[in-house]
Amino acid sequence: MKYFPIFVDAQHIHCLVVGAGEVAARKCELLLKTPAKITIVAPWVSNTVEKLAHSANVTLIRREYEKSDLDNKQMVFVATDSESTNQQIHDQAHALHILVNVVDNTPLCKFITPSIVDRSPIIIAMSSGGVAPVLLRYLRQKLESVIPHNIKRLGTFSEKFRNTVKTSLSSVTDRRYFWEDVLDGDIGENVLQGNKQQAEQQLNSALEKYVGGDKPAGQVYLVGAGPGDPDLLTFRALRLMQKADVVVYDRLVSPEILELVRRDAEKIYVGKEQSNHTIPQQEINQLLANLAKKGNRVVRLKGGDPFVFGRGGEEIETLIEQGIEFQVVPGITAATGAASYAGIPLTHRDHAQSVTFTTGHLRNNTINLDWACMVKPNHTLVFYMGLTALPIICEKLIEYGMPASTPIGLIQSATRVDQKVVTGTLIDIMSNKDTASLQPPTLIIVGGVVSLHKKLNWFGDKSFDESSTQSTHA
């Protein structure tokens, strides 16, 4: 972030506005929503500013700017038509360590004003750092359409009972849980509908029960994070991630998805990779239970889907044995995500009427699979965690009767901006120069459907595909 977003207490701010045209008027209108004192200096004044000057907090001085106008000011907006005047005021204010904003001139801005969605006392502020104002307006329009105007009622209601709840519940976590229950439940709904008296009675009753020990128990949420692209998260997954006290995540959860987790949540990494398990699975199972027993809302964040080669079943077995409440939130599994983003349909009328998902994970340098069952016509094979075992996979499939010319696709970092797809055949994929550069996570797809990749590919750098089909021995 180039700009640090803060909200300034305007009760003690005296702001200077130099200029009195329509641009300056817009800044004054925004400032007048606060208790800040405003001094406007300009030799000429627009009708809009003339009307705004009738406010008790506004002082209008009809003359050219003077350096003494900066005395006892904490903030300056400059909105004149003179570049030299704008530069002069910027330099003088900066020398006095006064925050200055020269409107529509980002290099001369020591602060910028955000785009605002105003539901006072709830304020949402957004900024593009001055680089994409049109995009910012678009985002603001989106937010304006989805945030109800009566959300301000919830803000006022929360303010009224804030001290009461704080006095009654000493724990920050307890207070957060209580307010989440209030806002998500019937109390919040009654506030939004204007049933203020009923909502107040409900809150007092709920607070009394909460103080008496009727608090929600800890829970574990097994959440599928999908294949990597944050846009593929479910709404439910995102909601739970933003409510979590603790997030236990694995190696396949992308940094972009972790950014969506509640800022102050504790994050515990339990990632696994070939021959290097940070924490054994049984310890992970018990960790989840122990965290929940302390009253935490625990999100177990897993790449893909928790129940597709994610060992989610083992984790909830432990939770059931120890009486821990849990939920499972499915995610888009790597096979469907990777196939879709690589332009490789897993089934296709002309190529495959069935599909098998299997693991290519090595144990003692072998893969214990029913190879004979896998080798059949009009069928697609998807191997998870199979990159290290790729030579064995190709060898075994050919050994059990699959044609050596069968297409095979390798998809690294599926659905992410650095996605890479390498295609070839069972006989030549290992000699492809691009195969050697691949790293986990890489998904393997085998079958006639892979031949459609070049035609159907729509995502990412297509040059990978062009080069990947050329063998170093061609």
From TrEMBL:
One of its GO terms (molecular function) is uroporphyrin-III C-methyltransferase activity. It catalyses: precorrin-2 + NAD(+) = sirohydrochlorin + NADH + 2 H(+); uroporphyrinogen III + 2 S-adenosyl-L-methionine = precorrin-2 + 2 S-adenosyl-L-homocysteine + H(+); siroheme + 2 H(+) = sirohydrochlorin + Fe(2+). Residues 220-426 form the Tetrapyrrole methylase domain. Then it catalyzes the NAD-dependent ring dehydrogenation of precorrin-2 to yield sirohydrochlorin. Finally, it catalyzes the ferrochelation of sirohydrochlorin to yield siroheme. The gene is cysG. PANTHER family: SIROHEME SYNTHASE (PTHR45790:SF1), SIROHEME SYNTHASE-RELATED (PTHR45790). InterPro entries: 4pyrrol_Mease, 4pyrrol_Methylase_sf, 4pyrrole_Mease_sub1, 4pyrrole_Mease_sub2, CobA/CysG_C, NAD(P)-bd_dom_sf, Siro_Cobalamin_biosynth, Sirohaem_synt_dimer_dom_sf. Its EC number is 2.1.1.107, 1.3.1.76, 4.99.1.4. The keyword Magnesium does not apply. This is Siroheme synthase.
